[in-house]
Amino acid sequence: MRSLPFLLVTLVSGGVAGTILGIVNLGVVEPYIDKAIQLETQNEIRAGENVNTDEMAGYRIWQKSGEIVGGIVYGISLSSLFGIVFAYSRNSLPGNNVKVKAILLASIMCFVLFIVPSLKYPSNPPAVGDPDTIYYRQGLFVAFLVISGASALGVTAFIKKINQTVSKKVAIACTIYGAIMIVSYLAMPPNPDKISISMNLVEAFRLGSATTIVMFWESLGATYGTLWNRFNPQNLKKVTAF
Known about the structure:
8 helices; globular; single chain; mainly alpha; 2 domains
């Protein structure tokens, strides 16, 4: 494995996928956040609270201006994890097409690290929830994510040791992982905060957020696979073309 091409593939693919995520978030997710904050502000004003709307508007402009940079940082951090997993697992993934393998792995990681945790603790707009419980809520999500990721790794290590056909290994892996996550889903505490704004808005935000994250993972896999073919980090002799 050549270190420089590997790092280049990892960083560039993460940066590209993160940039796409940031741009799409500006058009898809941010409008729902604005609506949620507007509703929350109206409720606070009706309750007689002193709300500095100018300060809030300035803060939102600052947030949006950093959306793409935040997406790039997010993309590179996850592509680093993805790159390590891909380097170790690419020979175990089905097929001979590197790009297809990368997209498949990205889909699996998206399912394990985002979709499954979000079924238990779905995302909400920033205006939803008690500020005093934010760290507790984040801790619950991270804990469930860790359980999901660790379970997937453990199941993968286990099925590699058993002598079965590929189809049976997949069935066994899905059964064990599913059982662990169902038990974890039932055992973990619920989200402590009630939703005080329109559920239609919240559901639209969740759908938009999920769409952009799935798009991020798929674009990461496609870009990573394309660049891997181009720079061929595992080949010490040649670099192939697109």
